[in-house]
UniProtKB/TrEMBL annotation:
NCBIfam families associated with the record: peptide-methionine (R)-S-oxide reductase MsrB
Protein's recorded name: peptide-methionine (R)-S-oxide reductase
SUPFAM superfamilies: Mss4-like (SSF51316)
Transcription in keyword set: no
Annotated GO CC locations: cytoplasm
Pfam families: SelR
Classification via InterPro entries: Met_Sox_Rdtase_MsrB, Met_Sox_Rdtase_MsrB_dom, Mss4-like_sf
PROSITE patterns from the UniProt entry: MSRB (PS51790)
Catalytic activity: L-methionyl-[protein] + [thioredoxin]-disulfide + H2O = L-methionyl-(R)-S-oxide-[protein] + [thioredoxin]-dithiol
Occurrences of domain MsrB (ranges): 15-139
Key word Transferase present: no
Catalytic activity, EC: 1.8.4.12
Amino acid sequence: MSDDLTNTPAVTYSEDEWRARLTPDEYAVLRQSGTERPFTGEYTDTTAEGVYECRACGAELFRSNEKFHSHCGWPSFYDPADSDAVVLRTDSSLGMERTEVLCRTCHSHLGHVFVGEGYPTPTDQRYCINSICLRLVPGA
């Protein structure tokens, strides 16, 4: 994982093409770095086994065995499915410094990652991801 967004993503569309491919709510989160309301997302409490893909481009991002209940209102994972599945970058919006998580394949916004919150995970990380950014492929 890196914060290098200088490379062109593998999947690119114009903003008009993204708007045509995504619903208005998906576009607001994935392409405009929005956030869905807590405890409203489709995958917040899902325990089904499978692979979570990027809703914008279909790239594999997380696996169900990396998901845990953080009770924060959004799906939480302790590690991406592949160390290169996401890109991290500094987010200084909202008057604080956070680490934004983006899909490496299409550079769509997914959520944020937090470290050292005390969750009993192997990585001590919480990838807090918007449900609307994901698509679960059961049993994959």
